[in-house]
Write a structure and sequence with these properties.
Layout: H1 4-18, E1 23-28, H2 41-48, E2 57-59, E3 62-66, E4 72-76, E5 81-87, E6 97-103, E7 107-113, E8 119-123, H3 147-156, H4 161-166, H5 176-186, H6 199-218, E9 260-264, E10 267-271
Antiparallel strand pairs: 1-6, 2-3, 3-4, 4-8, 5-7, 6-7, 9-10
Helix pairs in contact: 1-6, 3-6, 5-6
């Protein structure tokens, strides 16, 4: 699932291409991606037609497209959601196109989603911040992000460290990939209890998460397959620089021991068994 760097790459690409453009027509090609718009596909299309896009915005993994009316198109990319922009003339339809918008400059904005876990909805009055995601915490790149407050709240939790890092109400934008990378950099096991974590180590892992996401962002995000691309259809390259995630059996870049994969919350967690030792019972 796209995490903060991947969503920010998409946001920036959209900002360059759709800001100030009017939506001349909307076609909902499959109803599932607009399932959270409870008034239905026809209302979704009618609410958007004639509106003009303001600059796209993001909080954590959530992206929204503000409109001149004060409403917004709230979107979550899910596992495979993509925004693709093409010129209208001679543009072949993408196989997994779900929503298509004709823009005033002659281009087409498509929401493409192979697995259809993502979605779009109109958020009434959501241009500044959609009410649907007001509970999502600030991410480390937000100007109002308070690192001291995040560390204090993290250390008050009675849970394991990786669950805390994945909790979008504590700190947003971090998913499975960047949590594993931050834990590897901090030499911390994913099951380390948060309420017993020394304050310096708490700062270290939170800062490591921001650092690794900044590095990923500079390389266009992390792509393992064609399910994540930017608005031009290009993949990110940070996957080549991952130290832990997805490297089961490969040597740790610090100590040489094979990276291990543990079962974690119906998914996987990758760590070095030497550098990231399991906490004592």
């Amino acid at each position: 699932m796209p995490e903060l760097p991947e969503v920010e790459v998409v946001r920036a690409g959209l900002a360059d291409r759709i800001t100030g453009l009017r939506i001349d027509a909307v076609d909902v090609l499959h109803p599932r991606p607009v399932r959270r718009h409870l008034a239905g596909p026809e209302d979704f299309a009618a609410r958007l037609t004639g509106q003009t896009f303001a600059t796209p915005r993001r909080r954590g993994k959530y992206l929204w497209l503000p409109l001149d009316s004060g409403d917004a198109v709230l979107t979550h990319l899910g596992m495979s959601g993509q925004f693709r922009i093409d010129r209208s003339e001679g543009a072949a339809e993408h196989r997994h196109s779900r929503v298509r918008m004709q823009l005033s400059d002659g281009s087409l904005l498509r929401f493409v989603d192979q697995r259809m876990f993502g979605g779009l909805q109109v958020s009434s009055g959501g241009a500044e911040l959609p009410a649907e995601i007001a509970h999502i915490a600030l991410d480390p790149f937000d100007p109002d992000y308070d690192e001291d407050a995040v560390v204090a709240r993290l250390r008050r939790r009675r849970t394991d460290l990786k669950r805390a890092l994945l909790d979008q109400t504590l700190i947003s934008g971090i998913g499975n990939i960047y949590a594993d990378e931050a834990l590897w950099r901090s030499r911390l096991h994913w099951a380390r209890p948060t309420d017993a974590l020394p304050r310096p180590k708490a700062y270290e892992v939170v800062r490591a998460a921001k650092a690794v996401m900044a590095e990923a962002l500079a390389q266009g995000g992390t792509s393992f397959d064609a399910l994540y691309v930017n608005v031009n259809g290009e993949s990110g390259y940070f996957g080549r620089g991952l130290d832990a995630y997805g490297r089961e059996g490969e040597p740790c870049r610090r100590c040489g021991r094979p990276i291990r994969r543990d079962a974690f919350m119906n998914r996987s967690s990758y760590r070095c068994p030497s550098c990231q030792r399991a906490p004592r019972a």
